[in-house]
Amino acid sequence: MMCSITITKRRRIKPPSSIIIISILIVCWISTAVDAFGSFSESTLHRLAMASSLSYLSIEKIKQSPYYDECKLEPIIQVVDPKSESGATIFRVIDNSNNDNNREHQQLVVACRGSANPKNFGTNLKFNLVPATRLSQNLPDNALVHEGFQSAALGLWKELAQPLMKEMEKVSSVTFTGHSLGAATSLLTAVHYQASNSGNRGPLPDVITFGGPKLCNSELARHIRNESLSQCNILHLVHSSDPVLANNQKLWNDLGFENVGIELQCDPNKPIVYYREDDAPKKGIAWNIVDHCKYMVRYS
């Protein structure tokens, strides 16, 4: 993304070059965040929060959920990796303004399921950083990734690849989303998808996550931002009452983990996203595990 900055000459006022550089970096970062956030209305983010919640259910139970009629999402495919037992549901966005036969304008949402069984929780605990050699791309030698998330995402992509890529010629957009473990696997499966999309069979992916953990070191984070998903929006919605995020920050920092994409505060009890940090609710003591499951009013 390019930032256009106009500097007006003022008589004999020359700020230090370091201030100019810092100002440019701040303007560029704000421009990036505004553009990324502006691509998604709060109603769209709310819908993705519901998709992340619904991904915990079977397709039969999804259609019985109170979220189903509200979210305007039709579940079309559901897969599970037999080894890690990570799962994902592919939804088609229901848009009543379009003719059902006009499939080239359809939108897909790939919602990766969070932790739902002992194997999933075991995946979370394999938090050592290991070489990122299983992400479908040529990566820097020093790129490191969470061991459990890398394995789960690879197994999940093997199940997702064929049915998802089969749909790609019919759609105009695809968004990967998920909560917690599903947030981590959604980002990494988006990397797999984009590597498989080298022939431009489908649209560039967006990645919108809820309550997602850090999952890689700075080298891999930089590579994903600048190479793998360089033209994609990557937003991580978090809130200060989430005890999983609050209580693991020191561990992640000590192990050298770094965020990928833009992190935005949202409200656990209202369908609201806070662009300005000062507008977000004041931080309290994050202790209630239920708060990890609640994002934008939707329980996962």
Total DSSP helices: 9
CATH architecture: 3-Layer(aba) Sandwich
SSE string: HHHHEEEHEEHEHEHEHEEEE
Widest beta sheet: strand line-up: 1-2-3-6-7-8-9-10
* Structural category: alpha/beta
| Helical coverage, percent range | 25-40%
Determine the N-to-C terminus distance. 34 Å
Low-confidence stretches: 1-34
The radius of gyration is: 20 Å
Label the overall shape: globular
CATH superfamily: Alpha/Beta hydrolase fold, catalytic domain
> Describe the biggest sheet?
8 strands, mixed
Beta content:
15-25%
Overall mean pLDDT: 85
* Strand elements, count: 12
Account of the 3D structure:
There is one protein chain. With 300 residues, the protein is of the alpha/beta class. The chain has helices at 17-38, 42-54, 59-62, 68-71, 118-125, 147-167, 181-196, 218-228, 243-255; strands spanning 73-80, 87-93, 106-112, 129-131, 144-146, 171-179, 205-210, 234-238, 262-266, 273-274, 294-295, 298-299. Strand 8, helix 9 and strand 9 form a beta-alpha-beta unit. 40% of the residues are buried.
